[in-house]
Write the structure tokens for this entry.
Amino acid sequence: MGAAMGLAMIPVLFVGACLAIPYTVGARWLRINREHKLRLRMKACGRLISWPEFVRGMREQGGTCIEEKFSPKGPVRFWWTPEDVRRESTHEIIDWFTMRKGRQHEPFVLWCRARYTSAETGSAVLVDTPLVPRREIYSLWSECRSEVAKAQWIEVAPPEILPHKPGE
């Protein structure tokens, strides 16, 4: 009985794989396309800077890098503002992992989106990072964590990934 059931599952698994692969490719294409359109939109309104400009701004002017992370695997957007977000915020700023698990920190997430990372109302500039090696990003992140750094780095969960309220 077990061997027969195993043989019967082979076509089911094959069909599942045939459906999963195009779905994954399509979902990835949509995500890449959405991020590309955002970069073009930000460039059109003067809110896109290159990685070297961003690094120079962080080192010379300070300010805050806002790492807007949709999931551990991406997409990840990096925004820069010359403002000190920790000083400007009246809300507690916590780590991304905790932030995305509950709605108690939703006021900070919404405030950050409206003031900095919104394509329509935000003031932060998007950093163009698709071709930047992760080790360079991590190196700057480490630099911002030092005691003498002018700049700071915060993570924020975008409102789209917060758990839904009952009834939504």
